[in-house]
Amino acid sequence: MEQCWEPGEPGEPGWARPGGELGGRGLLALAVASGAAAWATWALLLMPGFRRVPLRLQVPYQPSSPRQVANALALLRGRAGKTVDLGSGDGRLVLEAHKQGLRPALGYELNPWLLCLANYRAWKAGCHGKVSFLKKDLWKVNLSDCHNVIVFLAPSVKPSLATKLLAELPDDARVVAGRFPFPCWTPSSSLGQGLEQVWAYDMKEVRREAQGSAQESQV
Q1: Torsion, CA 130, CA 135, CA 137, CA 141, rounded to 10
Q2: Mean per-residue pLDDT for 187-213?
């Protein structure tokens, strides 16, 4: 027979009483349930895209704030050419780039759930078929035809990414980094403060600085 208690009945657990305190066991159960829910979210929504990527190059999903998006696109205003978002998540930066006239605009993302969300957002915004979200590893795609690159990635991957961008991007390309700058590059401009800050790097200047540093080290 199923056991139940009337409010205030002896033997009723404290967490079941209106206004009652959780107590030690209740708090423990709540913590376990919260941890299980967080793990399930990671396992089902975020982990699938990372299984083939080395651990040191994995970047967890963190959506950009409206101010971060606005600042990033402000540093690309007036430019043209192919625009890519490396690790495009839910697609918000790609959509805003397209609306600003940066075309073609596309995102590279491995997580299938985020790709579905990005395509849904594109459909809802009336941009279905006008922007692209590709399930590709950003470390393996060729960026030689890209003129505008948006990077909202963790600082741990910036050194490796800097090497790739230097090797592949054309001289007239501009890279916009959000949240964290490239540690060894000098930005041509920046906008915002704190976590809202973004940095723009013009590849011609970045290469010139890198070549100058290399020549100095040989002297």
Answers
A1: -40
A2: 94
